[in-house]
């Protein structure tokens, strides 16, 4: 779930609630991730899964979120498919985070536009199964800590920011070809 926060003064000054997960589905300790997880039997669709997971992980009340789009699915490691669901949180003050400490270490905000700027960013070229692509790393500091947002999470946020701001990033984006495969 990519929850965007609407600022009354400036609609384009979106903020993203992100998670710094201690344990996630991929067992990557200490990585920054967006709320999300596996589909459960009672989930009607991908939107329901995203809303349920955001509620379970960070206490985001689904009634506060207007889902605006579902992005193209992305295959991740270990044969997992990630389906980014983007929603707007119209009233940031109504959201009172309740962190599930079994899954989440901290929650923080990051300006969405930072994922279009070539500041506090670096990249690494990866070669995998005959494909060459760039992994992006964004450094973000808050009053409570320093975070590195990278790989699939960074890719989702670059795509979301490009859609919201209707412009490409200030840097080259070469996503893995396998991210362009449709979910089966």
UniProtKB/TrEMBL annotation:
GO molecular function: coenzyme A diphosphatase activity; guanosine-3',5'-bis(diphosphate) 3'-diphosphatase activity; metal ion binding
Keyword Lipoprotein part of the UniProt annotation: no
Domain of life from the UniProt record: Eukaryota
SUPFAM superfamilies in the cross-refs: Nudix (SSF55811)
Single GO BP term: coenzyme A biosynthetic process
Sorted UniProt keywords: Hydrolase, Magnesium, Manganese, Metal-binding
GO CC terms, sorted: cytoplasm
A Pfam family per the record: NUDIX
Cofactors demanded by this protein: Mg(2+); Mn(2+)
Transmembrane in keyword set: no
Domain Nudix hydrolase: 1-133
Protein name, as recorded: Nudix hydrolase 11
């Amino acid at each position: 779930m990519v929850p965007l926060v609407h600022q009354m003064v400036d609609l384009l000054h979106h903020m993203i609630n992100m998670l710094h997960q201690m344990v996630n589905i991929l067992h990557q300790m200490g990585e920054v991730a967006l709320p999300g997880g596996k589909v459960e039997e009672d989930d009607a669709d991908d939107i329901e899964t995203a809303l349920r997971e955001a509620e379970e992980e960070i206490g985001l009340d689904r009634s506060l979120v207007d889902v605006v789009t579902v992005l193209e699915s992305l295959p991740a490691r270990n044969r997992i498919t990630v389906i980014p669901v983007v929603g707007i949180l119209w009233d940031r003050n109504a959201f009172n985070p309740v962190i599930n400490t079994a899954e989440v270490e901290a929650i923080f905000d990051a300006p969405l536009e930072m994922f279009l700027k070539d500041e506090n960013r670096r990249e690494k070229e990866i070669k995998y199964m005959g494909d060459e692509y760039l992994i992006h790393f964004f450094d973000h500091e808050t009053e409570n800590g320093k975070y590195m947002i990278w790989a699939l999470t960074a890719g989702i946020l670059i795509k979301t920011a490009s859609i919201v701001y209707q412009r490409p990033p200030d840097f080259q984006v070469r996503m893995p070809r396998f991210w362009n495969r449709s979910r089966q």
